Amino acid sequence: MAKKVLVLGEVRDGELRNVSYEAVAAAKEIAEGGEIVSVLCGESVSGLADNLIHYGADRVLVIEDEKLKTYTTDGYAQALLQVIDQEDPEGIVFGHTAMGKDLSPRLAAKLGSGLVSDVTGIENTGGNLIYTRPIYSGKAFEKKIITDGISFVTIRPNNIAALEKDESRSGDVTNIDVSIKDLRTIVKEIVRKTTDGVDLSEAKIIVAGGRGVKSAEGFGPLEELAEVLGAAVGASRGACDAEYCDYGLQIGQTGKVVTPDLYIACGISGAIQHLAGMSNSKIIVAINKDPEANIFNIADYGIVGDLFEVVPKLTEEFKKVLV
Amino acid sequence: MNIYVILKRTFDTEEKIVIENGKISEDGVEFIINPYDEYAVEEAIKLRDEHGGEVTVVTVGEEESDKQLRTALAMGADKSVLIDDEDVEDGDQFSTAKILAAYFEDKEVDIIIGGNVAIDGASGQVGPRLAELLDIPHVTTITKLEIDGTNVKIERDVEGDVEVIETSLPVLVTAQQGLNEPRYPSLPGIMKAKKKPLEELEIDDLDLDEDEVEGKTRTLEVYLPPEKQAGKVLEGELDDQVKELVSLLRSEAKVI
Ligand SMILES: Cc1cc2nc3c(=O)[nH]c(=O)nc-3n(C[C@H](O)[C@H](O)[C@H](O)COP(=O)(O)OP(=O)(O)OC[C@H]3O[C@@H](n4cnc5c(N)ncnc54)[C@H](O)[C@@H]3O)c2cc1C
Ligand SMILES: Cc1cc2nc3c(=O)[nH]c(=O)nc-3n(C[C@H](O)[C@H](O)[C@H](O)COP(=O)(O)OP(=O)(O)OC[C@H]3O[C@@H](n4cnc5c(N)ncnc54)[C@H](O)[C@@H]3O)c2cc1C
Predict the structure, then answer these.
(1) What are B23-75's pLDDT values in tens digits?
(2) Ligand 2 pocket test: which of B25, B84, B92, B104 has the largest number of ligand atoms within 8 Å of its C-beta?
């Protein structure tokens, strides 16, 4: 049965995040031929609307309001509740990002709806939509259905493929006004800690360093490799605790959870709390001088050796073949 | 100040997952306080020591969760409440939030502190859902908290960046790594905890019917990911290994 499904487009640094295109693809699966309506909130965001249409949205609602310039729970909740009231959708999809995690449960609670968070796969079996999600830090998976209310879903970046971009697609882009009042939380300041490079949670390739990199400078060769591969740089908590890098790079149980196509672990032992953040990566490469290191137990490919020798050679080799 | 912590009992991080009869087996499993909820307990104790008042730790779960509550009391919390959910089947995050909301309905709350995510169920829904049901603001993944009168200043982690937030009490916040270093229970703390109140409630005591807390989602199946094939550790001269790796990544794994 065709359903109308909303997708919240998430803007970061003036661009749509890739997970928003993946969310459109997820919405298509849920809509079963119904209409996909994307919602864009912020200031001067209407220029991004066409992108959502090229990736599969049928319509885009743009809410430009200075109160939505930075994300606040109350501001976005009020805006979306008005859109939901107006559109009466059967489903709504968010990225499982800081914003999606903060906002979706609040809305689902308000509307008495079921929410399945951190979804990595959606299948339609005889009209039943079944959502797959990792539990116990990726050590197990569960399949869930939503039994009541609007179907709320957040999807994990990098797991549901976006549709092919089709620039010939067209659709309505409508500006709407909402009334936003009484924000109970105010964002005073945003301190950027992350670098401008590739966003860790959405990166297709990650080069990660552990205590084995030995110093902040030790990340240099990893950064060069990442540059050649268009990859993001990540780290173990060991490296963060030793102050070789910022905690913003930490991957693991208490850091970011990532599922890139390729994860290159350099000088990381493979503690269970680190694996919690990356074991569901498609391909894992381990570079470690200790042949007994646990990381080799989950790696697809391993090189036993000194990362300061191996990584630069790898960079050179990739440079040769990627020209 | 009336300080509340919402706490979940979870599998120890190191536990292997075994599935029996379609369910995750709890046989011989060690349980802990969800690691993020330890930060919440620590922060609550620090707030009380600074501003006065009382810390109450609340959990919804099985009877055995009393052990984790005792640990929180031994760390320094004042009171604890165990709401037994064993009578209800087919619950989800909606159910937990609904039960907690019913508990808080007649309480004077200044602040509720939880973890940002439970490492087992891992949805991160319970905190924001509860805040909505109580009609108070929430701030997730906080790394710093300062309270002055009813003014609250918070730093939160947003995917590595830091957001500075101002809000006011009452508020619900969820803890992120970096908020504090949770203390270990001291021996005198453990002795004292034995005499601190641990109230046990049933769903009925909260004037809730079973069907009012029925989940809005249902789990059809739990399963383990396919066992990873033992990986390939390359051999030979380093230069050759590097060449082989690059070629494998391109032709076999097809990720580059
Ligand atoms: C509650 C809790 C939460 C945690 N959360 C996280 C988390 O989110 N993320 C996380 O990563 N950890 C986390 N940890 C910490 C985790 O247990 C490990 O301590 C940490 O992952 C170790 O980091 P590491 O692998 O870099 O360091 P180590 O374990 O010290 O390993 C360093 C590795 O580098 C190798 N090495 C050294 N020199 C070289 C060289 N020149 N070339 C090649 N290899 C070299 C060594 O052989 C070794 O295997 C958590 C722990 C707890 C208790
Ligand atoms: C009546 C009932 C029946 C249930 N039946 C099932 C079932 O059949 N199968 C099943 O898999 N699960 C069942 N559950 C558990 C439920 O699905 C979730 O595990 C629970 O709601 C927590 O969700 P989460 O693990 O995603 O936690 P998150 O939302 O990730 O937790 C975030 C934070 O919320 C707080 N929190 C979470 N859970 C609790 C809690 N229980 N008590 C106090 N604070 C908490 C903690 O501060 C935690 O750090 C049931 C729950 C209830 C109440």
Answers:
(1) 999 999 999 999 999 999 999 999 999 999 999 999 999 999 999 999 999 99
(2) B92
CA B166 – CA A145 distance, rounded (Å): 38
pLDDT at B90: 84
| B213 and B95 Cβ atoms separated by less than 8 Å | yes
Q: Considering only CA atoms, which of A218, A264, A260 is closest in space to residue A239?
A: A218
pLDDT in tens, A11-31: 998 999 999 999 999 999 999
Question: Which residue CA neighbors atom 32 of ligand 2 most closely?
Answer: B117
Order the strands of the A121-125 sheet from edge to edge.
Answer: A121-125, A128-135, A140-146, B217-223
Angle of helix A98-110 relative to helix B126-134, nearest 10 degrees, comes to 40
3-state DSSP call for residue B102? helix
What torsion do the CA atoms of A7, A11, A12, A15 make, to the nearest 10 degrees?
110
How many of the other CB atoms lie within 10 Å of CB of B167? 23
B-chain residue closest to A311, CA distance? B242
Residues of chain B with pLDDT under 70: none
Computed over every residue of chain A, the mean pLDDT equals: 96
CA contacts within 13 A on the Cβ side of A11 = 25
pLDDT number for residue B16: 93
Q: Write the single-letter amino acid at A48.
A: L
- Burial call B63-92: b when 16+ CB within 10 Å, e when fewer: eebbebbbbbbbbbbbbbbbbbbeebeebb
Q: Does the model's pTM come out above 0.80? A: yes
Instruction: Specify the DSSP class assigned to residue A194.
Output: S
Contact A296 B231 (CB under 8 A): yes
State in Å: Cα A284 to ligand 1 middle. Answer: 16
Annotated domain spans of chain B: 2-213, 227-256
For domain B2-213, the CATH superfamily is: HUPs (3.40.50.620)
A135, B6, B9, B31 from B76: Cα distances, Å: 31, 15, 18, 20
Domains and CATH numbers, chain A: 5-175 (3.40.50.620), 200-321 (3.40.50.1220)
**Best residue for ligand 2 mutational test, from B19, B63, B96, B133 (most atoms within 8 Å of Cβ):** B96
Which helix (H) or strand (E) covers residue B132, if one does?
A: helix B126-134
Q: How confident is the model at residue A196 (pLDDT cuts 50, 70, 90)?
A: low
